From TrEMBL, chain A:
This is ABC transporter permease. Keywords: Cell membrane, Membrane, Transmembrane, Transmembrane helix, Transport. It is found in: Cell membrane. The chain crosses the membrane at residues 12-39, 77-97, 104-122, 159-181, 201-226, 257-278. It is a multi-pass membrane protein.
TrEMBL record, chain B:
It comes from Roseibium aggregatum. Keywords: Periplasm, Signal. It holds the Pfam family SBP_bac_8. Residues 1-31 form the signal peptide. InterPro entries: SBP (IPR006059). The lineage of its organism: Bacteria, Pseudomonadati, Pseudomonadota, Alphaproteobacteria, Hyphomicrobiales. This is Spermidine/putrescine ABC transporter substrate-binding protein.
Length: 287, 360
């Protein structure tokens, strides 16, 4: 009995180490989440918040076409951004890992993530100027005679996607690069010994082994992109609304925190479903 | 821990406290009092605020908002007494009085007789013989345009915005549902004061047609930038508040009240009932309503618009008065209607229509 008691006391040790993290999570995630879940069941009547228990705010999402459309828009934009970012980031990461001499790789990475150092909002407004009718892209296209009229690039979904991709290519480059440099050269040598060419080696050996890096980056891109308000608000020109914009409209214009909370929880459910899809590649334990 | 280490740490702590008090003391000595004001962005111009701060040795803390709903949400989330001065849309003053937010003002100490008659708005500002707010600035939500790119004659008829595609892709819409929906209602021959839910389907259809012609829908900065940079040539819901400040640099930027009329907006200023510094807050109201304060507010860096005090004319230059169309005010006031002032139900319905318009 005494030995059991002693063992229990010793087992408390690890809890002491994780207690700060647990407290932090409880205070800044669990508690606000519970408050949000409770408020999502309340009602806004006139200027008053009524503490009722109703799923009316959730039903609104399915009844009102513009809410549902916002979710569809968010998923479409996020899917386009994630796929485009992977396609652009992979060769970028591969060039840094394989073609840049080891002593220059750190500098190449710093250069790759340099745009991270500027303010997110400033970067979005900069894109607005670059993509504008009289911006550098349209002026260049007009100058070399490729187009007769400026292209409608700014204030559109295209602009939103470009703004996002610029940001997330950097993130994905880092996660894919981290995966590529850990890959032992012996895999490629073995594939070559067995007669595989460079393309076949990449397709059957390198790509599958770097899937975890791609998927971790893709999941981060998905989460950050679907929850972002600034980029679509600045670059989209309000020509379509994404979920974070619709949530902000409920708060900023109507002070309707219950509907905003319900929409935020629905967005979290979508992110959770995405996590489950990505989960097999996002294992934190070491092999 | 040894005695020596403890002693050293104590010494460092005392030094730290002394140092921070030396560094922070001058900062806290900069102003003996603070005033908290909930305002539209035009009040944040230092040229407007600094003279008052210097005269009364006070720091004015300004919180910007857009839309009365947002302001009321901020007040709801604050403690009583947090806010001293409230700048609010003229049509929404009754809501603030109903919510028991405002304190009566000493009307006899304010330049009430100098306020343009149409801006006195006693029905909104006065309750049971007590004045709760005073108009400080007004203007129009109508059509701003670049006259180098757009035929000014076309802009005299508001229906060109939705009945033809002549300016398709060259139109921006100001992202504020009340003035733009009110303006469309006026264009359809409706009275904004009589708007009801039955009017919304027609307004919605017209908004959708405008959206089909529009390049973007943006808040103040985005829509103003779009017009100034040539991204668009017409701003629906614009007015002197968009173009007057830019006209010195680009005289092609102009605005007009079409023949159907437009929306007249006005903003009012009052003192919060729970303010702990009512006297100082009232002095701030007096300063803003003085000819000097009115001229600075009218030409604020955030947006220009007409001062409510007619005596401000003497403080403005000819260029400023031309940009504000001072001499047209009589006919403009007569041909404009106030913002819609919907009840909570209609307001929610209008916001739903606006969200659909954004999503269209």
């Amino acid at each position: 009995m005494a030995a059991t008691w002693k063992r229990k006391r010793i087992d408390l040790g690890p809890w002491a180490f994780v207690a700060p993290a647990l407290l932090w999570t409880a205070a800044f995630f669990v508690a606000p989440f519970i408050v949000m879940a409770v408020v999502s069941l309340w009602e806004r009547v006139g200027t008053d918040l009524i503490a009722s228990w109703t799923f009316a705010n959730y039903l609104k999402f399915f009844e009102r076409g513009h809410f549902l459309q916002a979710m569809v828009n968010s998923l479409e934009v996020t899917a386009i951004v994630t796929v485009t970012s992977i396609v652009l980031a992979y060769p970028f990461a591969w060039i840094i890992a394989e073609k840049v001499p080891a002593r220059w790789q750190r500098l190449a990475l710093v250069l790759a993530i340099l745009p991270f150092w500027t303010s997110y909002v400033v970067r979005s407004y900069s894109w607005l100027l670059v993509l504008a009718n009289n911006g550098i892209i349209n002026q260049a296209l007009l100058g070399i005679g490729l187009v007769d009229e400026p292209l409608d690039l700014a204030n559109s979904r295209t602009a939103t996607v470009i703004g996002f991709v610029h940001f997330f290519v950097m993130l994905l480059t880092l996660t894919i690069y981290a995966n590529l440099v850990q890959l032992s050269p012996n895999y490629r040598k073995a594939a070559a010994d067995l007669g595989a060419g460079p393309l076949r080696t990449f397709w059957h050996v390198v790509l599958p082994l770097t899937l975890p890096g791609i998927m971790v980056g893709a999941f981060l891109t998905f989460v950050l992109c679907i929850g972002d308000y600034i980029t679509p608000q600045v670059l989209g020109g309000n020509n379509e609304l994404l979920m974070p914009q619709v949530i902000m409209l409920q708060i900023g214009r109507r002070a309707d925190f219950p509907t905003a909370s319900a929409l935020a929880i629905l967005l979290m459910i979508v992110v959770t479903i995405a996590y489950l899809g990505f989960a097999r590649w996002i294992r934190l334990e070491r092999a | 821990m040894t005695k020596q280490v403890r002693k050293t740490k104590l010494k460092n702590a005392v030094l730290g406290v002394l140092l921070s008090s030396v560094v922070l003391a001058p900062l806290s000595a900069q102003a003996t009092e603070e005033l908290n004001a909930l305002v539209w962005c035009d009040h944040t111009d230092p040229a407007l605020i600094e003279p008052f701060e210097k005269k009364f040795d006070v720091k004015v803390n300004l919180k910007e908002y857009e839309g009365t709903g947002a302001a009321l949400a901020i007040v709801e989330q604050s403690q009583p007494g947090d806010w001293d001065v409230f700048v609010i849309d003229g049509v929404d003053v009754p809501r603030a009085i109903d919510a028991d937010l405002l304190a009566p003002l000493p009307a006899d100490a304010l330049p009430m007789d100098d306020i343009f008659p149409a801006l006195r708005m006693e029905a909104n500002h006065v309750r049971d013989g007590k004045t709760y707010a005073v108009s400080e600035k007004f203007g129009y939500n109508t059509i701003s345009f670049n006259k180098a790119k757009v035929d000014p004659v076309d802009m005299e008829d508001m229906t060109v915005l939705w009945s033809s595609d002549k300016y398709k892709g060259k139109i921006a819409v100001y992202d504020y549902y009340l003035p733009v929906m009110g303006m469309v209602a006026v264009g359809l021959g409706k009275k904004t004061a009589d708007l009801s839910g039955a009017d919304l389907p027609e307004i919605k259809d017209t908004l959708f047609k405008i959206k089909d012609n529009a390049k973007l829908v943006g808040e103040v900065v985005a829509s103003q930038t779009a017009l100034a940079t040539g991204e668009v040539d017409i701003l629906v819901g614009g007015g002197e508040w968009v173009t007057a400040g830019l006209s010195a640099d680009n005289p092609d930027l102009d605005w007009i009240l079409p023949k159907q009329g437009g929306m007249r907006w006005s903003q009012s200023i009052g003192v919060f009932k729970d303010s702990k510094r009512k006297e100082l807050a009232t002095e701030f109201v007096k300063y803003i309503l003085s000819p000097e304060g009115q001229a600075k507010l009218a030409t604020s860096s955030c947006y220009w618009a007409m001062p409510a005090n007619s005596k401000a004319e003497a403080q403005l230059t000819d260029q400023q008065k031309t940009a504000l169309r001072w001499s047209d005010q009589e006919s403009y006031i007569a041909n404009s209607q106030l913002y819609p002032a919907p009840d909570a139900k209609l307001d929610a319905e209008m916001q739903d229509v606006w969200t659909e318009f954004l999503q269209h």
